[in-house]
Amino acid sequence: MIKGLFETHLYVADLERSIDFYKNTLGLSQCYYEESRRAAFFWVGKPKEYMLGIWEKSKEEVEIRHFAFRCELGDILDQSVSFLKSKGLKPYNFLKDGSDQPMVFAWMPALAIYFHDPDGHVLEFIAILDGEAKPELGVTSYENWLNAQ
């Protein structure tokens, strides 16, 4: 019966700041705004395919959450880090090598890079990789992943 995940919601401390971030920094299409409920909604990907809702709450009510934006492999490899840096965001990975390059979760397998929104929510760009999962590689560089293929 379940075909996918349609929407997710975040609490944010400053609605206008977060609208600016998701609309102007990340480029999502705002599809609805409701002043009385202090909420805004964005299409992620094609309209009506996936939705993100943001709701203004007090700082004490904002709990840090995580979600990932599905991306094309080439986009992550070719432009994700430069895109994030050009928007004043700090990309990071879990490689512990001092780099800010995308990493591979070999158990999926998927290539990913992380960053934060203005409230500190953990956001991710991710692309599923072709090939069989190799959990024994753990979290690794894309180069190591390719060499293991």
Mean pLDDT over all positions: 96
Number of strands: 9
Treating each run of at least 4 consecutive H or I residues as one helix, how many helices?
3
Tell me the series of helices and strands, N- to C-terminal.
EHEEEEHEEEEH
What composes the largest sheet? 5 strands, mixed
CATH architecture label of the largest domain: Roll
Structural class: alpha+beta
Q: What is the CATH class name of the largest domain? A: Alpha Beta
Strand order of the largest sheet: 5-8-7-6-9
| Amount of beta strand | 25-35%
Q: Report the C-alpha radius of gyration, rounded.
A: 17 Å
Tell the overall outline: globular
Whole-number count of domains = 2
- In the CATH scheme, what's the topology name of the largest domain? 2,3-Dihydroxybiphenyl 1,2-Dioxygenase, domain 1
Question: Roughly how much helix do the residues carry, as a percent range?
Answer: 10-25%
User: Low-confidence parts lasting 5 or more residues at pLDDT below 50?
Assistant: none
What is the CA–CA distance across the termini? Answer: 35 Å
CATH superfamily of the largest domain: 2,3-Dihydroxybiphenyl 1,2-Dioxygenase, domain 1
